[in-house]
Design the sequence.
């Protein structure tokens, strides 16, 4: 039962990736693309956690934690860039 | 692993994946940026939260001892998601992105008399 | 008293750091607890200059209560937003709402902004320059007055009670 739930979950998260990618490519504005990137990194965390359960390996947790940290910094830097036209003032 | 644990795990994983999916669906479906902003910040956060709880239970049952470090990631997402949403909304207002409803005035010139209401 | 204040500048930060350290290592071994305590003491001590003000919680009990309510609200709001996404964009009534603030403490205002980002279908967009108004975008809001009243009663009042007198 768990493996079936995992298969369905993988499919759903993959579909989520495709939809975020669609928004990333289509835009139409810069904040839309940043939002899509933000969603992509959260989807990546979801995928890594699922992979960790699927392969019964706790190693993927570190990668998920790192992506959570770096993704947030990236989103904030990009949003700040839009607000100020400059990241380091 | 007992049947009850397995059922609980499957439900949590399915719920988490479904919320992640719905969050991205909102990103595609909504028409203006300000409504699109709601979808990933809310639905996705709970989705990943569910998955992390499932992971925590899974490794506590199968591995050696309690596994709680997944809480850190969900805690971190819960703290950071509203901050990125707030900054993106601010950037969008700054750029005067079109919205389906009337945009407010320039933020610095919000109507002052409202304060007394 | 001043000496103690300098040696342990943030009594709240230390246990939080210890807990985060233990969770990161995923172990509660005595050695890790010792190392965590050392870090929990050293980090607040050496980052003293970066903290603009001390965090003061006046009602710790209320804070726990508020956290419980908040987590419940997060789940409800997530379900509501998920439903709205599935229903589709045609039945939405998005709106920009200005929420007048009674809070004055910076920490309380930022906590309120974060809380309303996560909860009732709203995202805080902008704080006015004088810190008295918060611009909020609501996903589905037919009655702005009611939304403002809900935010004030459910989130602002407890935060005011916890962080201000």
Sequence:
């Amino acid at each position: 039962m768990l493996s079936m739930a995992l298969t369905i979950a993988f499919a759903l998260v993959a579909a989520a990736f495709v939809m975020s990618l669609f928004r990333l490519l289509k835009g139409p504005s810069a904040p839309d693309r940043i939002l899509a990137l933000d969603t992509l990194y959260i989807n990546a965390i979801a995928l890594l956690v699922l992979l960790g359960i699927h392969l019964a390996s706790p190693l993927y947790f570190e990668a998920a934690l790192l992506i959570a940290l770096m993704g947030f910094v990236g989103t904030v830097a990009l949003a700040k860039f839009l607000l100020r036209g400059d990241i380091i003032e | 692993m007992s049947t009850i644990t397995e059922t609980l795990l499957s439900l949590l994983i399915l719920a988490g994946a479904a919320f992640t999916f719905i969050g991205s669906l909102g990103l595609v479906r909504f028409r203006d940026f300000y409504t699109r902003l709601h979808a990933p910040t809310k639905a996705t956060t709970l989705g990943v939260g569910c998955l992390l709880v499932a992971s925590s239970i899974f490794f506590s049952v199968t591995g050696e001892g309690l596994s709680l470090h997944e809480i850190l990631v969900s805690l971190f997402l819960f703290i950071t998601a509203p901050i990125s949403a707030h900054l993106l909304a601010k950037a969008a207002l700054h750029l005067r992105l079109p919205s389906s409803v009337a945009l407010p005035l320039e933020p610095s010139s919000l109507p002052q008399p409202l304060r007394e209401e | 008293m001043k000496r103690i204040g300098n040696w342990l500048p943030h009594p709240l930060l230390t246990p939080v750091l210890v807990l985060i350290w233990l969770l990161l290592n995923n172990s509660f071994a005595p050695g890790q607890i010792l190392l965590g305590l050392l870090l929990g003491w050293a980090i607040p001590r050496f980052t003293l200059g970066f903290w603009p003000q001390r965090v003061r919680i006046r009602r710790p009990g209320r804070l726990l209560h508020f956290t419980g309510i908040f987590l419940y609200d997060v789940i409800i709001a997530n379900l509501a937003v998920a439903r709205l996404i599935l229903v589709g964009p045609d039945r939405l009534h998005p709106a920009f709402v200005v929420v007048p603030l009674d809070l004055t403490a910076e920490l309380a205002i930022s906590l309120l902004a974060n809380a309303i980002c996560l909860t009732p279908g709203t995202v805080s967009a902008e704080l006015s320059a004088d810190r008295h108004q918060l611009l909020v975008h609501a996903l589905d809001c037919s009655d702005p007055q009611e939304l403002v009243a809900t935010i004030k009663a459910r989130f602002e009042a407890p935060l005011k009670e916890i962080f201000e007198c």
Observations:
- Chain B touches chain A through 53 residues (CB under 8 Å).
- Residues 3-97 of chain B form one domain.
